[in-house]
Each structure stands twice: as structure tokens, then as C-alpha cells.
Amino acid sequence: MKTLVIPVIVCGGSGTRLWPLSRAGFPKQFLALSGNFEKKTLFQEAVERLNQIGSKSSKVTANLTITLGRTLIATNEDHRFLVLDQLRKMSGIHATLLLEPVGRNTAPALTLAALYASEINIDQSNDPILVVTPADQTIQNADVFTNALQSCISVVTGDTSNKTIAILGITATAPETGYGYIKGSVSKDSFTEYTVEQFTEKPNLETAKAYIEDGNYFWNSGMFVLRTSTWLAALKEFRPDILDAAQKAWDQKTQDQADSTPFVRPNKERFSAIPSESIDYAVIEKCPGSNYQIKMVELDAGWNDLGSWDAVWQVGNKDAQGNVTSGDVLFSNSTNSLIYACSRLVSTVGIDNVIVIETADAVLVADRSKSQDVKHIVNRLEAQQREEKSLHRKVARPWGWYDSVDQGERFKVKRIQVKPGASLSLQMHRHRAEHWIVVKGTAEITNGDKVVTLTENQSTYIPQGQTHRLANPGKTLLEIIEVQSGSYLGEDDIVRFEDTYGRS
Asked: Tell me, what DSSP letter sits at residue 371?
């Protein structure tokens, strides 16, 4: 049997529980957090895992030929170039980005993927199987994971009524209160396939302990396998308002691309009107007892959703004293701690079970057992409208990055790096002037009606209100130091006239 399978990566979370390393502008899925801090990012690992479904054979796939379609990545429009940068570092991945203009949770994201898949006609198959996973989980045993997903695909293809959804249930090893739970009973004809009886969302400790003792409960991984038509039909039955609103946004979509990677953009106004809901609440939890059945395949492969800094410590490479580190770190009489040093030396003396996360503009110190409470700090940052909630001091841009190295009254200093062949938008500022000094590479600078080329140690001045652009015409990186001066230096003081990246 030949089956068209489409990997779907849901990549829209903000990862605020891993602040200050993860922020809305650079969330945790784009960080390398599993095992050690030098590996692939969580997003790259998720893409790689799903693209192994068709290439690795097993007993499950003996009578099943999997044809793998393009990977669909549902992500926030603001993160599209972060996704592209990370895809560039991977070989053999063909992806399409479904760009959400605003966040509407996972049910609308999956609906975009289903609407896209319903328009595909490969080998006369217009009802592909969707394999759906978040972008921010870690799996220690990739082969076991692949086999489990293939089992889910087999479960779905075996139902000719197209009313079965398969879910991966994680072997529950402790009474965790931060996870949802699945109650399953073993199917009569299978020792690995369960029929899901109920879902429970984040129980209290006593209930979680009872679930572990019962032995028939599993953690909800948030990973699903289902036919395109099954999702659309179930959504029509349980949440027709979401389907109707998503269809209207999809019907008015536009398409463009970058680096031969398609961007599909649903209509912003229509998409903003879609009710915000998760896949679980919209459909999955309503299926038991309905015309749709949920089958579960157990997964015991070292899964973790990295929902807190304590979870990062748990999957990290520990030294003899139980410490997990990244960067320039020195310990003295310290145990069972996670220390992340981003921009300077971090040293600890006489600590145990502590989290220390140092970035260029913020430091977090927390009891490891209380690391879930980082959300309270993020909420206070949001209430105070502080930039540290969303942006790092060093900010990624499609053309490169900038790092705000110093700031005072009426001035700001940035270090700016521009990729070869890239350029900033043609723009102007109403409230500030800028001085540019080239420290590496070659800069092509549009300054009003003049275009000049500057090299190392040369500089120029951009008056307030002047139209200008910075470009790198060379084959090596361009770096400049920018000194801003003026009455207002916010990032929103920018008027774009032309932009390679669709931001004007």
C-alpha cells in the first residue's frame, strides 16, 4: 500500500517559561537545548525526525510504502526568516511555510496545513496523512520514535472509514502535574495499540499519583497522525466556527517565496477573526464517545517537552556533581545545578539545585524546583512593557543581526552585521540621525540621492529624516558600528519605502 505522508511542524510558541534565553522574538524552538547546547536546535531536530519516517524501514512498514511530501511548517510570520536560516543548515529538506499573521493557537495552524494538503494531488492521492508534531520537544531515541510514528500511520491507514486519529502517548514515569494525561485500554487485537477513553488536563498531585499507580495513564505528547479529511470533517462537526473562519482566510491567501521556499500567507483580517483554540480542546478531547475514535501508540523514547529550566537540566549532559553547563562557567562546591553563560564568566560557590541563566541584558537565578514560576517574571515584564520580554540585546534580522551594545540619554550604539549580498530596507527615521563606521567588509550606502562605497575604517553620516539604505555587495560579512543620536531611539521609528523581505 502506497501512502502519501506530509510532516507538519507546529512552530508558533513563544517559550516564555525558558526566559531569558527564550523570548517572543527568538523562542525556544530555535535554540539548541537537548543534551548539550552545541547540537541542532529543537526545530531542526523536529524536522529531521519527521523526515525519517519514509527512509527507515521496520516491521511496521513491511506492507506500507510511505511517500513523503513537502514538510509544512506553520509559524508566526515574524519568525519566517529564523525558520529559513535554520533550514539552510539542513540538507535534503523541502519545506513550505504557512505564515500566521497573528497567533491563534494550534487548531487553526493544523487547519491551514489540512487545507493546503487537501489541494495536493500526488500519485492520485488527495487525502494525505498528516503527521503533526510541535517544534519544541526533545526525543532521545529517534529510531524508537520513528517506529512509533510508523505504527500510528499503520493504524490510520487501516481504518477505511477515515474516522480514526492516532496519538502518541508517553510512558508516564512520575506524577507530573504539568502534563495532560491520556487514559487508554489495550485493544483486543493488539498489545501496542490502545483505545483512548478520556483525556485529563494537568491534574493535581494526588490525582497524578493515582494515575501512575493505575498504570493505564500516559502523558499527552501533543503529536497526532490523521488523514486530512478526518481533521476537516471532525473540525466541521465539533468546531465549525474555526473551520469556516479558516477557510475564508485560506481562500484569500497570497503566495511568495524566499530561497525557493514557498511562503503561503492567509488573509490577515480573516485569520485574525479565527477563534483561538488548541488541537486538543477543539477536536481531540471531544472524540472519545463520538463517531471519531482515538487510538494511542505508546512511546518510550526519552521524550521531554522542555517546559521549564528544570526539564532542560534533566536532559542535559551532567558532570560528576550533577551540573549542566554552557559557556564560560566555574564551579566551587556546587551540585545539581544548571548554569548557562552567554556573554561573560559565571561562577558559583556552594549552591545546590539552582538555575542560573545569564544573557547580555538579563540574568535569571531560580530554585530548580520552582523554575515553572519564571512565567510570573515574564508577566511582570509584560505589564511594565519592558523590551526584555520579547527581544534580546542581539536581535536576528533576515539580513543579519544587530546588537545594542550601549545606550544613554539621546544616544544608542549598535554593532550591525550584514550577510553577503543582503541589504537593509530603503528607509528613514523621523527622530534620529545615524553615524556609520565600517569595521569589516564593504558597504554600499544609499544616502539621499547619493550612493557611496565604504570599506574598513571609513564612515558616513545619515541626517535625521534622510532616506537611506545599507547593503553588503561583497562575498564576506559586513560589520559596522552605528551611533544613533536624537530625541527618540525606539525601533518603531522607521519608515520603509522598499524592502527585499516584504516588510515595507
From this structure: G
Contact 388, 381 (CB under 8 A): yes
DSSP codes, 197-259: EEEE-S--HHHHHHHHHHS-EEEEEEEEEEEHHHHHHHHHHH-HHHHHHHHHHHHT-EEEEET
Domain that holds residue 223: 2-304
Residues 363/366/372/377 CA torsion (nearest 10 deg):
-50
Answer yes or no: is 168 within a domain: yes
Task: Give the residue from 270, 288, 304 where a domain finishes.
Answer: 304
Residue 331 CA to residue 354 CA, distance in Å, equals: 12
Taking 3-state DSSP, the helix, strand and coil percentages for the chain, each rounded to the nearest 5, stand at 25, 35, 40
Angle at 299 between CA 296 and CA 300, to 5 degrees: 150
The cell for 218 is 500516559
- Selected residue with higher pLDDT from 255 and 65: 255
Residues 213 and 328 reside in one and the same domain: no
> What is the DSSP secondary structure assignment for residue 361, as one 8-state letter?
S
Nearest by Cα to 119 from 27, 246, 250: 250
Q: Which residues pair with 71 in a beta bridge?
A: 95
Condensed to tens digits (0 to 9), the pLDDT of residues 470-500 reads 999 999 999 999 999 999 998 899 999 998 8
What the block records as the C-alpha cell of 254 is 497570497
DSSP helix/strand/coil, 69:
coil
| 140 in the same domain as 66 | yes
What is the chain's alpha carbon radius of gyration, rounded to the nearest angstrom?
Answer: 25
Predicted local distance difference test score (pLDDT) of residue 177: 87
CA distance 428 to 443: 18
Task: Tell me the three state secondary structure of residue 349.
Answer: strand
d(CA 27, CA 306): 12
Distance (Å, whole) CA 485 – CA 487: 7
Contact criterion met (CB below 8 Å) for 301 and 223:
no
Q: Rounded CA gap, 98 and 112, in Å?
A: 7
Q: Are residues 334 and 451 in the same domain?
A: no
User: Number of H helices and number of E strands within the chain?
Assistant: 11, 31
Cell numbers found for residue 229: 479529511
Question: Total structural domains in the chain?
Answer: 3
pLDDT band at 124 (very low <50, low <70, confident <90, very high): very low
Q: 3-class SS at 261? A: strand
Amino acid at 481: I
Q: What percent of the chain clears pLDDT 70, i.e. is strictly above it?
A: 95
Amino acid, single-letter form, for residue 150: Q
Count of CB atoms situated within 10 Å of the CB of 9:
28
- Residue 265's closest CA among 74, 446, 30? 74
* Burial letters 121-134, b for 16+ CB under 10 A, else e: eeeebeebbbbbbb
CA distance 275 to 290: 23
